[in-house]
Amino acid sequence: MIHHHPDNNMLLEYASGSLNWAHSIVVAAHLQLCPKCAADLKLLNGIGGNLLATSAPALASAPEQEKQSFEQLMQRIDSGNQSFDAPEAPEQKAPRTALPRKLAKDPVFASVPPVVEKLLGQNSALRWRRLSKGLKEARLKTGQCQHEVAFHRIAPGNKVAEHDHRGTEITMVLYGSFSDADGIYSRGDFLVREPGETHRPTATQNHECLCLSVVEAPVALTGIMGKLVNPFLSFRPQ
Amino acid sequence: MQASDQARNDEWSRLLIRVGRHRDRAAFEQLYFHFSPLIKGFQFSRGGQSSAPEAADELVQEVLFKVWRKAPSFNPDKAAASTWIYTIMRNCRIDALRRHGRQPDTDESLNVEDIWDDSQDDQPLIYLQQSRSESAVADGLQSLPPEQSHVIEKAYMEGKSHSEISEELGLPLGTVKSRVRLALKKLQSTIVR
């Protein structure tokens, strides 16, 4: 049972498409495990649908021009791969990316939500870095540099050193559970910590704990992340 | 939503089903000429570069292309036609913004549809019947106080985050958040009622 959810504000930003890329990834992972939030999302998408249905229609260009645009679209549809024209079977979804064999054997990755599985497929060589005793981190490439997205692994029963955050930190539990002074968090739970809120997570005794976390990237990027940034390009991460 | 609006939404659903099942071009044409001015109208409410007519035309083409391709997976029990098309449009807008801001040599990573996917729709709808809640949302939206509907419209139509809205309106972030929450509470209560 999931007890901690993204708030309505964050879900609305996700539904309206204004939530940043990294936060959207972790919200998507939560939605894939949480029927309650998935139901709330239907309402939020429904708001978008209603606003679209009742938006003031833009004045049409000349009818011939509209007709021409339509013909262009039909040409594009026809000229595309012939298979586009055959009805796509509704169940035909993107095939699930197979996990790299090494990860597939690891129980903590056994039943991650689809968006995390996709991330794993694109980050097959996870580089675990030991942050402290019993706590490891592997950063993930997600196609943006505004936030650091990472897995954190806490050994069974291990206490993480008390820490603060330089910016908002979002953590979602993917496997096992951990607790801090405020409660116990297990699979699917979604936590937001603001800067200045310190906490000291402890993994439960019998299991390892795996979390997906997102934290604002430092202003001055260093290390691996820094090398990815080309200083000659103005880059607007999204 | 008036009963007639509901019937109209049902009509768009029927057309979408015909496009999906029978690749019905006449049905698709009707959808195209109904939704393209709405999509443009929605898009024009964004300021700046993205409200240029070419950008709006491009968006229409992209959205309707996807509507044609995805129509076979449209399920009217899960979403109204306008909501289904809205989610396709939202994803196209996110995609366009991303392509605009991306470094050419950045690795291709997750796609928009990996993150804004519709797999959560596979879960059984344990709440109300979809069409009823859709019309309740429409009624609810119309009865919101202006300061609440204003932030909701900014979020959806202009694609602004809460902090962007707070900057633009010169309101504390907490005020924007609470207006959104109040609006949602009201909408939720109209549905449950």
Q: List low-confidence stretches of chain B.
A: none
The parts of chain A where pLDDT drops under 50 for at least 5 residues are 84-94, 220-238
Find the count of extended strands of chain B (DSSP E, 2+ residues): 0
The total beta strand count of chain A reads 9
Radius of gyration of chain B: 18 Å
Q: How far apart lie the N and C ends of chain A?
A: 32 Å
**Overall mean confidence score, pLDDT of chain A:** 82
CATH superfamily of the domain at 113-228 in chain A: Jelly Rolls
How is this fold's topology laid out?
The complex is a heterodimer of chains A (238) and B (193).
Chain A: H1 8-16, H2 21-31, H3 35-53, H4 63-79, H5 82-85, H6 101-104, H7 114-122, E1 129-132, E2 135-140, E3 147-154, E4 169-175, E5 177-180, E6 183-186, E7 190-193, E8 202-203, E9 209-216, H8 223-228
Antiparallel strand pairs in A: 1-2, 2-3, 3-9, 4-7, 4-9, 5-6, 5-8
Chain B: H1 3-22, H2 25-44, H3 53-70, H4 81-101, H5 112-115, H6 130-142, H7 146-157, H8 162-169, H9 173-192
Describe, in plain words, how this protein is organized in 3D.
The complex is a heterodimer of chains A (238) and B (193). Chain A has 238 residues and is of the alpha+beta class. Among the domains of chain A are: 8-52, no CATH class; 113-228, Sandwich (Jelly Rolls), CATH 2.60.120.10. Helices cover 33% and strands 20% of the residues of chain A. Chain A has eight helices and nine strands. In chain A, the strands form two sheets. Chain A has a six-stranded antiparallel β-sheet, with helices on one face. A three-stranded antiparallel β-sheet of chain A has the order 6-5-8, with no helix packed on it. In chain A, helix 1 packs across helix 3 (35-53). The longest helix of chain A has 19 residues, at 35-53. Chain A is elongated, with a radius of gyration of 22 Å. Chain B is mainly alpha-helical and 193 residues long. Chain B is built from nine helices and no strands. In chain B, helix 3 packs across helix 4. At the A-B interface, helix 1, helix 2, helix 3, helix 4 and helix 7 of A face helix 1, helix 2, helix 3, helix 4 and helix 5 of B.
